[in-house]
């Protein structure tokens, strides 16, 4: 079972999220939090696989709580859930090591998929959040980021670059393995090496580097 913490200051929102997630036979909502501080303490003291955090909460906002959870409970994968899709929030969430970002108007099945992806070590960005990231990558500041990203990617082997390109497309380990004719375990090993070489905390950060560098997937 995937053990989930839901943090939102609105009881009705928490109840709705719980109802959606527990409709899946492999997900169990084991804890709830009413504010960011409580979310951090619960993530630290409770056996949780995935924490689903609202951005706007009292005590600590969701992005600050995300950073704190990364410090005190690094085993917990954090998804940010919000009604706001501002580009800065998406990038801050990813920069703090978040496993994904989706909006509260996402379809129930999308929420379940995001939790499963996070628990599996994959990243999830809702289509709306992805558009914000792509818009940012197309901005004038992208030129400097692209140069820095290409410099960092120069440390990778050709095979690692091919795996990274597929991460940039949002593929899971299993899907990347099928595309490259590798086992899922082999892809996982490559991803671990890539994160180490690029000094990235998670695959979302690595995927953004791939996008910054203009890395395109090649054939298998």
Could you walk me through the main structural features you see in this protein, from its secondary elements to its overall organization?
The protein is of the alpha/beta class. The protein has helices at residues 11-22, 36-45, 62-72, 87-95, 108-119, 127-137, 142-153, 158-168, 173-180, 184-198, 203-212, and strands at residues 2-7, 27-33, 50-54, 77-82, 100-103, 124-125. A 6-stranded parallel sheet has the order 2-1-3-4-5-6, with helices on both faces. Strand 1 (2-7), helix 1 (11-22) and strand 2 form a beta-alpha-beta unit. Helix 2 packs parallel to helix 3. It is globular, with a radius of gyration of 17 Å. The mean pLDDT is 85. Residues 149-214 form the HTH luxR-type domain. Residues 3-119 form the Response regulatory domain.
Evaluate the radius of gyration: 17 Å
Number of helices: 11
Low-confidence residue ranges: none
Q: Tell how many strands the DSSP assignment holds.
A: 6
Strand percentage = 5-15%
Largest sheet: 6 strands, parallel
Q: Assign a percent range to the helix content.
A: 55-70%
Tell me the overall shape: globular
Structural class: alpha/beta
Give the strand order of the largest sheet, numbering strands 1, 2, ... along the chain: 2-1-3-4-5-6
Element-level helix/strand string: EHEHEHEHEHEHHHHHH
Terminal residue distance: 34 Å
Average pLDDT over all residues: 85
Domain Response regulatory: 3-119
Domain HTH luxR-type: 149-214
Keywords: DNA-binding, Phosphoprotein, Transcription, Transcription regulation
Modified residues (4-aspartylphosphate): 54
């Amino acid at each position: 079972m995937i053990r989930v913490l839901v943090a939102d200051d609105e009881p009705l929102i928490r109840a709705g999220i719980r109802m959606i997630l527990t409709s899946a036979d492999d997900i169990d909502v084991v804890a709830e939090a009413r504010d960011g501080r409580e979310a951090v303490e619960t993530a630290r003291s409770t056996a949780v696989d995935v924490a689903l955090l609202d951005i706007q909460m009292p005590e600590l906002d969701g992005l600050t709580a995300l950073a704190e959870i990364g410090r005190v409970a690094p085993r917990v994968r954090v998804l940010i859930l919000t009604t706001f899709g501002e580009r800065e929030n998406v990038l801050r969430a990813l920069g703090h090591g978040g496993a994904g970002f989706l909006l509260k108007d996402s379809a129930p099945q999308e929420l379940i998929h995001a939790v499963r992806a996070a628990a599996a070590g994959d990243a999830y960005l809702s289509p709306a959040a992805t558009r914000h990231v792509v818009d940012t990558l197309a901005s004038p500041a992208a030129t400097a980021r692209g140069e820095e990203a290409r410099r960092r990617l120069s440390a990778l082997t050709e095979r690692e670059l091919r795996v990274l390109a597929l991460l940039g497309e949002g593929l899971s380990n299993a899907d990347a393995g099928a595309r490259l004719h590798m086992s899922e375990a082999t892809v996982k090993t490559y991803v671990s090496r890539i994160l180490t070489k690029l000094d990235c905390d998670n695959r979302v950060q690595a995927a953004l580097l791939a996008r910054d560098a203009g890395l395109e997937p090649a054939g298998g």
